[in-house]
Amino acid sequence: MTEDKKQKDDVIVGRNSVSEAIRSSRTIDRILVAKGAKNGAVVGILAKAKKLGIPIKEVDPRKLDYLSGSANHQGIAAFTAVKEYASVEDIFALAEERGEKPFVIVLDELEDPHNLGAVIRTAECAGAHGVIIPKRRSASLSYAVSKASAGAVEYVPVARVTNISTAVDKLKELGVWVFGADMNGTDYTECDFSGAVALVIGNEGKGLSRLVREKCDAIVSLPMKGKINSLNASVAAGILMYAVSSKRGKP
Length: 251
Prior knowledge:
Helix content is about 35%, strand content about 20%. It has about 250 residues and is an alpha/beta fold.
């Protein structure tokens, strides 16, 4: 079987398989359903998924053909997570266990799996206590993310929330100072990262959403001295994470 005909490692296809995965409480990132396939058993599967808050997306049947390889997808597929998601409380518990002020990375619709994996990898190396991602319009804990993280997904709690702006509000209520990374902010070298800190990194193309940007306590920027006016999201996140780490006495 050629590479492009293999079923992807983190994909479950077929009505019975997807239904059983939901019934067994397996962690499912999202469900893809072929356009025009919302009938019969699929309707019941989608109803259960909606009740559990699992994101559902309609796609061209050819998308499912590609994902399933030679397997019969019957118009439905589910992406599973390589690791159970944590909660925001788990992230704070880890900070308390280490005797440290919380250091959290918040990703506002970061969609590239390789970027998410790279952020998780750097977060682990820089001593962050966890990463927060949204349920929708975001990369999730897929096989590709796990591979890009070089195994860091096993050590860094990743919490998935319904709404990032609400999560930012919660962090602020818990005494965390929230720094958003975006254009036209304060030079990051002039910022005080010594306390409880959350770094918010935006989408690869659009940056921070308007509402999330407005909710941040401060906007920080990296000086751009070349002709290109922006950095890859995971690279910018890495620089800022180590800036925070250095102020916290971490390597």
